[in-house]
Amino acid sequence: MSDSDYPEPEGEVDTLSPATLATRIRAGEPVSILDVRDRDEYDAWHVDGPGVTSRQVPYIKFVQAEIKDTVAELAPDLPEPIVVVCGEGKASAYVADLLTTEGVDAANLAGGMDAWAELLVAAAVPTDGPTTVRQYQRPSSGCLSYLVEHDGEAAVVDPLRAFADRYAADAADLDATIAYAVDTHVHADHVSGVRAVADRTDAEVVLPAGAVDRGLEFDARLVDDGGALTVGGATLHALYAPGHTREMTAFAVGGSDPNGDGVGTAAADVLLAGDSLFLRSVARPDLEEGVEGAPELAALLHRTLTDRFAELPDDVRVAPGHYDATTTADESGAYAVTLGDLRGSLNAFSMDSDAFVDHVLSAMPPRPNNYQRIIGTNLGRERVDDAEAFEMELGPNNCAATAVDAD
């Protein structure tokens, strides 16, 4: 249905902005959601979070209930206030008006799920030094990206193409020049923004060297394990972290490294972990080589967590590539915790390799939407315009092996 097909609300309808909703969810506040889209749309993708209680009742039922004067009977069993959600914010506005007329404290999510998908929220990852690490959160998918700034230079790590202008604008606000646009690996859940950021800022595109083996078809600076990117007075130390993919590389943000030899990883302040280690789970190993190659990659992931990351101290703060609906942000509003906390809370760290592989392979969710096309796009094999790219990546990222792996 087009916007004109939905009747206009008869009264004034309270609205809630996507940004306000995200703030409440990020803080773990109780939130009641009434989603009036069809069931298949709801099942594929809906608003979620640690304090969210959600119900799905299709819009057409409210239309029928209004005709029969039974809207009060259809009001969902949800704690008030209720946020009503649809695709574009039109049908939900009408339903919110019906509920308000019946005395229900209801508000409409402005712009609906379309506006929810366009939201990018920024928070500061706590650091001990002068380096700024800004985390960008996309609540609709749980994707996280980063801007690292020091002394007027910056690097954007795992940028999303849909928000390339945002990274450039924020760097300008910091009076910083973006020197690098970095991907930790070939993403399967969202369209990478490294080339879009480079087009807007003249940043150098950086990928792990192993991306060439995946079939990379555009020019980029390639980094190996132990390589380093100097960003003002800070350094991003490349730490090879295979498992999710063979080329997966984390970046430890630390002090200066004038020789470019990666020295200083053990003194890192923040670990940009990409899709290796999450706050409530670990990465899935099947998106590159399918089910057949997943056991070997899962074993590599176990080695990454227990061996490769062993050189990192407990107090390094892990800033992952994704967060899920069970995760609550820290006091700064960021999704980041110390590696020591994860070593104590994630079951994966206490398992031997065989048990870890069995555990990871037994609990993988559905693969991300359009993941094969997204991989092809991120390697430069396929060309899609901005609108198609945005549509391709809608929905949950599903890059974790399990929804929750923490005690």
UniProtKB/TrEMBL annotation:
<dbReference type="GO" id="GO:0016787">
    <property type="term" value="F:hydrolase activity"/>
</dbReference>
<keyword id="KW-0378">Hydrolase</keyword>
<dbReference type="Pfam" id="PF00753">
    <property type="entry name" value="Lactamase_B"/>
</dbReference>
<dbReference type="InterPro" id="IPR001763">
    <property type="entry name" value="Rhodanese-like_dom"/>
</dbReference>
<feature type="domain" description="Rhodanese">
    <location>
        <begin position="27"/>
        <end position="122"/>
    </location>
</feature>
<dbReference type="Pfam" id="PF00581">
    <property type="entry name" value="Rhodanese"/>
</dbReference>
<dbReference type="GO" id="GO:0050313">
    <property type="term" value="F:sulfur dioxygenase activity"/>
</dbReference>
<dbReference type="GO" id="GO:0046872">
    <property type="term" value="F:metal ion binding"/>
</dbReference>
<keyword id="KW-0479">Metal-binding</keyword>
<dbReference type="InterPro" id="IPR036873">
    <property type="entry name" value="Rhodanese-like_dom_sf"/>
</dbReference>
<dbReference type="InterPro" id="IPR001279">
    <property type="entry name" value="Metallo-B-lactamas"/>
</dbReference>
<protein>
    <submittedName>
        <fullName>MBL fold metallo-hydrolase</fullName>
    </submittedName>
</protein>
<dbReference type="GO" id="GO:0006749">
    <property type="term" value="P:glutathione metabolic process"/>
</dbReference>
<dbReference type="InterPro" id="IPR036866">
    <property type="entry name" value="RibonucZ/Hydroxyglut_hydro"/>
</dbReference>
<dbReference type="InterPro" id="IPR051682">
    <property type="entry name" value="Mito_Persulfide_Diox"/>
</dbReference>
<dbReference type="InterPro" id="IPR044528">
    <property type="entry name" value="POD-like_MBL-fold"/>
</dbReference>
<dbReference type="GO" id="GO:0070813">
    <property type="term" value="P:hydrogen sulfide metabolic process"/>
</dbReference>
